[in-house]
Amino acid sequence: MGGGSRMSAPIVSKKSDESKPAESLKRVPQTKPFTLAQLKKAVPSHCFQRSLLRSFSYVIFDISLSIIFLSVAISCFHLLPSPLTYFAWPLYWSLQGCILTGVWVIAHECGHHAFSDYQWVDDTVGFILHSALLVPYFSWKISHRRHHSNTGSLERDEVFVPKPKSRVPWYSKYLNNPLGRGLTLAATLLIGWPLYLAFNVSGRPYDRFACHYDPYGPIYSDRERLQIFISDIGIFAASYVLYQIVMAKGLAWLICIYGVPLLIVNAFLVTITYLQHTHPALPHYNSSEWDWMRGALSTVDRD
Ligand SMILES: [Zn+2]
């Protein structure tokens, strides 16, 4: 299975010579072009240095901007003439969504121990930031690390694992048209992230129901279960704060200031990871051909 499942049927260029392989397949790594040691050597050494000060400056910058946008929305929007509010709120949602995506990514870096030299600082910052965005920090950190350790593996990658033909659902042929694809894309952007966390949608197959909130689920080993409980406590705490806000201000208020920006954050991160792992040029390998370097190189990656 040369280049993984996406290569099982030869893809040909429609524009030019039908017998030539598509341009995208030329990028599929057939051999290892360099070793991990060579790759590391090519990266400037300062890129491996973690700076607590610089990392915290990003957190403070992003959170300050977020608070400024929030303050403007809360204190000024009700003063605007009503037609203008139809522009002001979408502008707020877009800006807040972008900034909070930055916060989300900082928490992701904490999960990779890239924030500082201190593991406890990284986990504390990551736990607070991700919980505030309703991400179970340790739960996802663990499965996400496994994704980086198994990228491009048909058997062990954690997410965006292409299904073999035998596991493609019967209804998918009805969705393979412009309307179906549009609806699928919209649903993926809107609810793909919570569906993955809660039901392992698009994740790797497990022998039983897999859920990021379940400490006893098949995703986690015995020594990881306590961290899943802690992640759940973070989600409960954040949910309790949101509940108190609903009681004080109402659900519509919370949806306007927090709910819609959070949906934008989720859509951003699904878009980013979708583009990283589902391009036709990116193969997935079975266990006879996969190795870490080959899988890691088969990614349009930024992290
Ligand atoms: Zn990562």
Automatic annotation (TrEMBL):
TM region positions: 58-80, 86-108, 120-140, 179-199, 228-246, 252-275
Region annotation (Disordered) ranges: 1-24
Compositional bias per record (Basic and acidic residues), positions renumbered to this chain: 14-24
GO cellular component: membrane
Signal peptide (UniProt feature, chain positions): none
Source superkingdom: Eukaryota
Ranges where the Fatty acid desaturase domain occurs: 88-288
PANTHER family xref list: OMEGA-6 FATTY ACID DESATURASE, CHLOROPLASTIC (PTHR32100)
Name under which the protein is recorded: Fatty acid desaturase domain-containing protein
Species annotation: Hevea brasiliensis (Para rubber tree)
